[in-house]
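Aim 2, interim progress: modelling of the flavin mononucleotide-bound target.
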Amino acid sequence: MSHTGTEQTEVRLVIDGQSITVPIGTTIFDAARTHGIPIPVLCHQQDITPVGVCRMCVVDTHERAYAAACIRKVEPNARKAKPEDPDLVVETNSENVRAARKTLLELMMADHPTPCVRQQQKKDCELEGLAAEYGATTSPYPHRELTRGRDTTSPIILVDHAACILCDRCVRACAELRDNFVIARQGKGYNAGIAFDLGKPMGSSSCVSCGECMYSCPTGALTNTVSVKHEFKTGTPCETADLMALDVFQHVSGNFLDFNKGAVVKRHFKKGEFFFREGEGSSTAFYILEGLVDMYISTQQAHVHTEEQRGTFSSRMRSKLVNRHQHRRQGEDMGRTHVVVDGGLELPCDQPEGQRGPGALFGEMSCMNAHPHSTTARAATDCVVLEMRRNIVDMLRRNKTFRENLDELYLTHTLELHLRKSPVFSSLTREFIQALRSKVRLVRIAPGEIIFKQGDLADAFYLVRRGFVKVTESCAGGDLVLAYLPAGSHFGEPALLGDGKHMATCSALDNVDHVDLVRIAGEDFKEMIRLFPQVHAELQKVHDEHMRENQKRMANISDVPLAEFLHQGLVEAQSLLVLNLDNCTRCDQCVKACADAHDGVTRLVRDGLRVDNFLIATSCRHCRDPLCMVCPVGAIHRQVTLDVTIDDTCIGCGECAQNCPYGNINLHEFEVTLHGEELAALGAGQAHAKKATVRKATSCNLCNELKEPSCVYACPHDAAHRVTGEEFRDMLKK
Amino acid sequence: MSTSTLLRVLPAEHNTEGVFEELKDIQRQNPLHYLPKEELQRVAERRGLHLRDVHAIASYYPHFHLEPPAKVAVSVCDDMSCHLRGAPALQRRLEQRFHGASPADLSIGNVSCVGRCEHAPSFVVNDCYYDGLSPEEAIDAVVQTIAGHPTSGSSYRARAMNLASDPYDGERPYSVLREFAKSRDRDGLIAKLKAAGLKGMGGAGYPTNDKWTRVRESKSLDKYIVCNADESEPGTLKDRFILTQLPHLVIEGMVLAGLCVGARRGYLYIRHEYQEQEEILTAELNRCAEQGLIGEGILGYADLSFEIVVFVSPGGYICGEETALLEAIEGKRAEPRNKPPFVANVGLWGKPTVVNNVETLAFATAIAAKGADWWNSHGANGFKGLKFVGVSGDVQKPGMYEVPMGIKYSDLIREYAGGPLDGREIIGFAPSGPSSGYLPASMLDLPMDWETLNKAKSMVGSGAIVVCCEGRCMLDMALNSVRFYRNESCGKCVPCRIGSQKLVEILQRWTQGGYKDSDMSVVKELFHALRQTSICGLGQILPKPIESVLEHFKVEVDEHLLNGRCPAGVCFRGDLP
Ligand SMILES: Cc1cc2nc3c(=O)[nH]c(=O)nc-3n(C[C@H](O)[C@H](O)[C@H](O)COP(=O)(O)O)c2cc1C
Ligand code: SF4
Ligand code: SF4
Ligand code: SF4
Ligand code: FES
Ligand code: FES
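Predicted structure of the complex, ligand included:
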């Protein structure tokens, strides 16, 4: 210490009796740390700016109140009595200090969901660890009643707001370590919490899935979503450093990539080799490093359709396999002009082919939303690609530059296609679309997120770029789904044309993938219809048609017990198995037929909800909004028609069965013959055995390989029918 | 700041400047009176801010709505003074009358003290303030608003009166400033403040000359003066009164401080509920500008410049805490900073800053004009100086009074405020709102003096004297005060964010017969943690009301805890909020 003449550069402090000299401006925490004196911390981390909010690190500095060691810098003390006195005397572990820390821990533990997800996963929740150390695991304070719950919209990070202690570590990690600026505090006081962007669900925020926040979080508030590991059979695993060298991984945390080691492999494909074929499902996607890939749609998918023959009340419902192009079920294929496929491509329906090159991602739709592949992908030249699991795909898709490129591609190529192929917009001029291009906003909505509510003031018109938008109207008794709008459709115009208020609520379909929308601001829309009266007229026509339909529908439902109907989720159903009890003799032929069609295991139970003289059998309803599609390995798929099927990749975890509110999915044990590799994967340790039992989830697949659902076909008494929710409601009315 | 000024490019570190005015404009112009996400996005884009930053501030201040509020939003103040003078009954009556109204049409909720405590109870309907109305008159005001013809609320205008602290006898000559511009006697000015022993009137009582000296000694080129007119503590009325009656003394005090310490810019931070005072100040500032008393080249001296910006608070009691206040001026969430560093070293935008209360600055001008001896000639019982106090609660004449320091509280209440209500007995009083805690009637004869009250574990503070008469339950009052802090906690630090909520829940249980033997040691531990580990004064002072009631009103409290009985008949009705 130099007091005489020259400028003072160091300060002396006494910590727990130990004399320590450090440069001016060193924090108490750093001074103690470098001398091996431990001070507990929660909100502090070595590599980010201290904020001093959790107060765990408080120490007694013999001032009015304790100081937070992590942020308190030691300065020369001008008021000390003698020059040789220390500048600061600190007690880090006195009884009173420990008592205060214990109280802080008890306060946090009172609201903590113990054990939290982090503790369950890795036993390293820092709060629970400290609480154990301070004997504060059981809190004397009342538990929090209302929490903000969980946000499950991000495919890689699970947000449990109840476990958040507002340490701001994620906030700083996202901004200081990663330059991403997505997370901040929101709200005030006891109701404060963390939020993404403008309070968006994490999944639809500008989060790039770098994982840094999750790494920084001391508790179970931000944890890695459990992803079942897909073992790659071929390819060379990639090193984190190699990945980080790629542009698309720029804002991603190295820790996170390390954590997901083995989730990306490098593979070589020879010209003409297939990556995947149309109709296959898979849980990986590809990123092109070198070479070109052809993508095309060849076959026309077929699916089961049940159709009512006009006639009497108990007219026979006939199910048959129909061609995609023959069949138009309400709410889909409407005005569909192009197919959105992987790799950001949107192929025109009449000529569905395209090609992608280096820097493109493909196969990601199937990987993310559990649809089977809608295209076939084949190497046009020799290719080098990265094959990656779902969590990495998500990370990639969220990369800023990558996303900008995709958006750019959309705006320059597809927007025009999108608009001009629709009869409604056919009169728009190229110049106008060009001008529009710079004004539209591309927005992304998380599964289940509301785009606007009924009664909200309308300020925009939307085009669906990908995904499904659910349109619901609330009426006495509950919400009624009006339509599911597929890619290529548009919505929001009725309000802009009418009284300015939205007549229905629009949201992204739950549980599946994101919905991407093109948002055209209200003023621009109005400008458009002013300049192009024909567009106005067309829209008006469609609008009037909708209004008529809606009125009819509302008139229909007004005389059924709607609340009950909605409550049972019937209106969501695309294919209810309805037994007319007037005809049914309880002969069980339907059950037998079902078992026969499915390896002896029935997928329907002849019992369930009774409505009037109908029985709704326990059998998959193929909901439009399937709550079951939470499969960790993506074994549940939806056909293009939205029918729900479970494929053989099922691992029998039972997640889907738990989520189906109607008990329509069951787990069954099957005897199978296993091969060496699979046995090893099961960890059975019995490589000699050939037969084994595996558990699989089963549900009605509408006998999609047969002409007609067996149950309906087998009924000798014309009692069993497959109908949609709306049709059933109409039956009830009669 | 109007929206057009935003078109100028803001330097990166100042890109939140004026953001609150912009958000207020958007909300005002929005037909549903809220901030749609699209608008927030536009604000972010225009200013080059991240979305999260705009959301962080918009969601912090209760004044901003992220969802459309009810068409008619009624908010009743139920803090200390209003709680004593009929707020619970008023609220119950409103709720009964408008029971069943759709939430989109009408909402009835609470608002924290709006600074009209002398006319309690107060309430707000949309943006209009009402006070001193009976429940039936209140219903009428709401009905009129629903019908689309809102009646005008209460108004607060200057009155002719003689105030001992006005050195100019009602004139506004700015003589001290004119004199100082010539003499430049900075040492003399600071010496006068020191000799008068002028203390901070914002509550903490820190010597003013010390603050000015520290900033004056700093070599920084940029320095700031901030006048704290956020006045939001229940019972505090004085700043509003001073801004109405003596705005020129406050402005002159700011300019003097600025010229004395070498600052060129000052912010007058006023709570948004004080619209009338904002107008008065703007008018007075315009007058000053015309006379060359502020701005570039004051009174023709090219080397003297000082401009004053009136900054309207986006709202919240915590904004009165000086570092939170600076954060608000910087356009951020008003969360208090960790101290040290103190604002005299690292203040607004990191520059040395003097933060002074309205009353402090007005007194500084008076002392500069008439000298320390004049100041010290005032006072009672051997103590020196003057003080503005607000008296509210159970007294005959609630209001604002200028009193000599050292006056006994009993004399003050009797001579100025007309004594207790309806000849009732005083049982307790708070010398300075919730932060002073409650003292028993036996301490009414204490003189109003900083030292004396500190010894009594209370404080002179901002002089928000709240009187409680028989029939009041002091445990209920303690709960009321702690609840105020809970409502106003910024949530930055753990002890106050979570502790305030838990303490409210525990006290609520006590007033409803749910006391547990283990509670007492739990709350004592909690008091310790709050006092010692909270970042700012709010959390540190939070236990005060209940601690003081446990000490001074033990018999009444024990009746609740041990015998399940409220001697005043206030608690155990199961209908307290
Ligand atoms: C929670 C809290 C609220 C405060 N509110 C105010 C206020 O409304 N007005 C005020 O002048 N000081 C308030 N203060 C005190 C200020 O932090 C600061 O000490 C004061 O403005 C300094 O001015 P003075 O020295 O002239 O008193 C508050 C302090 C705390 C901790
Ligand atoms: S994953 Fe990365 S970008 Fe997303 S919120 Fe966390 S830190 Fe920010
Ligand atoms: S989510 Fe985790 S890191 Fe972020 S503030 Fe909460 S506890 Fe801290
Ligand atoms: S003590 Fe309370 S008000 Fe002060 S910083 Fe902490 S949480 Fe905010
Ligand atoms: S670790 Fe220092 S306050 Fe949180
Ligand atoms: S206005 Fe209600 S207490 Fe101040």
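Residues B 318, 335-336, 489-493, 496-497, 534-536, 538-539 surround iron/sulfur cluster (ligand 4) (CB under 6 Å). Confidence is low (pLDDT under 50) at residues 1-10 of chain B.
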